[in-house]
Amino acid sequence: MCLAVPGKVLSLEERDGTLMSVVDFGGVHKDVCLQYIPDAAIGDYVVVHVGFAIQRLDEESALATLAEFEHLGVLNEEFADGFAVAAAQAGVDNPEAPRQRDPEEEP
Fold first, then answer.
1. Does residue 18 carry a pLDDT above 60?
2. Could you please report the per-residue DSSP string of 66-85?
3. Which of 17, 29, 47, 53 has most Cβ atoms within 10 angstroms of its Cβ?
4. What are phi and psi of 104, to 5 degrees?
5. Cα 57 from Cα 60, distance rounded (Å)
6. Which residues are within 8 A (CB) of 62 and not within 5 positions of it... i.e. 6 or more apart?
7. 54 and 38 in contact (C-beta within 8 Å)?
8. What stretches pass through the bilayer (predicted)?
9. Per-residue pLDDT averaged across 83-91, rounded?
């Protein structure tokens, strides 16, 4: 699933000529491209789709949407480790997870 998720702009910086930000999605922080909203400011809420901020959103709507996504488990699904989710859905161990050492195994 790929959603547009609201988040709060925490920082602004230019990287290689591209306006970037760290955005807070209810406690999950991700790098986001702000090129479509170049006048975004720290503290603004933006709607992010596939790593790009695509529009502004008022704080009340953003927080209500984040709360509903959290209630539905959407944020965990959207930001979870893709390998872990796929492995769980397939009913197999996550190939990316650290392997537990057998205590009888030599170091």
1. yes
2. HHHHHHHTHHHHHHS-HHHH
3. 53
4. -85, -10
5. 8
6. 6, 7, 8, 45
7. no
8. none
9. 68
Contacts of 58 (CB under 8 A, 6+ apart): 45
At 4, the pLDDT band (50, 70, 90 cuts) reads confident
The upper half-sphere exposure of residue 69, i.e. CA atoms within 13 Å in the direction of its Cβ, equals 22
Q: Measuring CA to CA, which residue among 33, 23, 10, 25 is closest to residue 78?
A: 25
Whole-angstrom CA distances from 19 to 25, 43, 46 are: 19, 16, 14
Report pLDDT for 41: 97
Taking the CA atoms of residue 97, residue 98, residue 100 and residue 105 in that order, the dihedral angle to the nearest 10 degrees is: 130
Average pLDDT of the segment spanning 21-50: 94
Region of 51 please: left (phi>0), alpha (psi -120 to 50) or beta.
Answer: left
Distance CA 54, CA 42 (A): 16
Closest of 77, 45, 78, 40 to residue 64, by C-alpha: 45
CA distance 18 to 28: 22
